[in-house]
Specification:
Blueprint (H helix, E strand, L loop, with lengths): L1 E7 L4 E7 L5 E5 L5 H10 L3 E6 L5 H4 L2 H8 L2 E5 L3 H5 L1 H9 L10 E3 L4 E4 L2 E7 L8 E5 L2 E5 L2 E2 L2 E2 L9 H12 L7 E4 L9 E2 H7 L5
Parallel strand pairs: 3-4, 4-5, 5-6, 10-13
Antiparallel strand pairs: 1-2, 2-3, 7-8, 8-9, 9-10, 11-12, 13-14
The structure holds zinc ion (2 copies).
The site of one zinc ion has 4 residues, from loops.
Length: 210
């Protein structure tokens, strides 16, 4: 698979363009601003976007959904437990309060163990609740897209409504740190450290995992 990390919006979100070199089908993970920039890359690489996947339902990761779907026709995919954040008036209101464009309701919901495919690329859904009830990481070919669960040198917040720190630490320890050490970690925000890491490096250096 080919991975392009694109920093977007005003909240330092890392958006990912993941594509199949053979079929040119692609998935975008967490479009969250600068949609024209992302669409331009899709055009330059002659890709066909099939899915818009959100690692979780927070507005800073879903605010590009509407525009991205308008521009590409791709389908919006989110974990079933975070779908209400996109569908409910309450969720849409919360996004607006943060000055973010609300997402349309998802076209498809997924759960743990499901696969999201684009050509030869297949991303497995790892349900990692804690930051949100339907937070998920996506695993494919030794690459792990971690959203707001695991960052380079940091971990996600658990002080927001719907969060659970007990569930969160369980997700990290049982679902992520059990993956092979060489698994590449692609985080959901740029917090000024390196843009990516590995499970082994995080286990060694991330102060929150000790
Ligand atoms: Zn979040
Ligand atoms: Zn975030």
């Amino acid at each position: 698979m080919e991975i392009e990390q694109i920093k977007v919006g005003f909240m330092d979100v890392f958006c990912y363009l993941v594509s199949c070199p053979r079929t040119k089908e692609a998935v975008v993970i967490d479009p969250a601003g600068d949609e024209e920039k992302v669409v331009k890359r899709i055009e330059q690489k002659k890709l066909r976007l099939t899915y818009i996947v959100n690692t979780h339902g927070h507005g800073d990761h879903t605010c590009g959904n509407a525009k991205m779907r308008d521009l590409t026709g791709a389908k919006i995919v989110v974990h079933e437990l975070d779908a209400p954040m996109l569908s409910s008036e309450h969720g849409r209101q919360m996004a607006r309060q943060l000055g973010l464009a609300p997402s349309p309701p998802p076209d498809i919901t997924v759960k743990d163990g499901d696969h999201i495919a684009a050509g030869d690329v297949s991303l497995e859904v790892l349900h990692t609740p804690g930051h949100t009830p339907g937070g998920m990481c996506l695993l494919g070919e030794g690459n792990l897209f971690t959203g707001d669960t695991l960052f380079v040198g940091a971990i996600g917040r658990t002080d927001m409504p719907g969060a659970s720190s007990a569930q969160f630490m369980k997700s990290i320890h049982e679902r992520l740190l059990t993956l092979p050490g060489e698994t590449i970690v692609w985080p959901g925000h740029d917090y000024g450290f390196r843009p990516s890491s590995t499970i082994a490096d995080e286990m060694r250096t991330n102060p929150w995992l000790r």
